[in-house]
């Protein structure tokens, strides 16, 4: 998953927090108000991009339509990486005696943070 824009990130954090607090996702109007956006259509575009990237899941035929993705069984990851990437992360985790999720987080940190600093 490529990096999120600032607005996408704020939206995702808001949705995650609201689900954690209340057990249901916020409405598009609530998201728009939180982000300072006037159009629910713009919120829909932001949510579409987050769903495309696998950060959110849409639930069909329901008033509160957003959910968080389920972790990939047994991996602790919320995304399904390319099989070669998955094997590399799993091998790194075994070699360093850490969880797959920690290995993935370390890899993402090196890729996005350390590389950006250079």
Write a structural description.
The protein is mostly helical. It has 2 domains: 6-67, Arc Repressor Mutant, subunit A (Orthogonal Bundle); 83-117. The protein is built from 5 helices and 2 strands, in the order H-H-H-E-E-H-H. The chain has helices at residues 6-22, 28-35, 40-52, 83-96, 100-117, and strands at residues 57-58, 66-67. It has a two-stranded antiparallel ribbon. Strand 1 (57-58) and strand 2 form a beta hairpin. The longest helix is centred in the last third of the chain and has 18 residues, at 100-117. It is elongated. The two termini are 21 Å apart.
Give the helix/strand layout.
Layout: H1 6-22, H2 28-35, H3 40-52, E1 57-58, E2 66-67, H4 83-96, H5 100-117
Helix content bin: 55-70%
Report the CATH C-level class of the largest domain.
Mainly Alpha
Summed up, the domain count is: 2
CATH-defined fold name of the largest domain: Arc Repressor Mutant, subunit A
Quantity of strands, as a count: 2
What value does the average pLDDT take? 82
Main sheet characteristics: 2 strands, antiparallel
Coarse morphology: elongated
The fraction of residues assigned to DSSP E strands is under 5%
Poorly predicted ranges (pLDDT <50, ≥5 residues)? none
Identify the notable features of this structure and list them briefly:
single chain, 118 residues, mainly alpha, Arc Repressor Mutant, subunit A, 2 domains, two-stranded antiparallel ribbon, 5 helices, 59% helix, 3% strand
């Amino acid at each position: 998953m490529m990096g999120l824009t600032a607005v996408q990130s704020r939206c995702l954090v808001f949705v995650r927090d609201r689900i954690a607090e209340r057990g249901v996702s916020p409405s598009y109007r609530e998201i728009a108000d939180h982000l300072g956006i006037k159009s629910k259509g713009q919120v829909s575009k932001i949510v579409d991009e987050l769903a495309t990237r696998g950060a959110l899941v849409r639930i069909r035929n329901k008033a509160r339509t957003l959910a968080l993705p389920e972790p990939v069984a047994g991996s602790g990851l919320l995304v399904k990486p390319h099989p070669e990437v998955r094997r590399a992360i799993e091998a790194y985790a075994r070699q360093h005696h850490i969880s797959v999720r920690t290995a993935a987080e370390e890899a993402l940190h090196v890729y996005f943070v350390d590389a950006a600093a250079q």
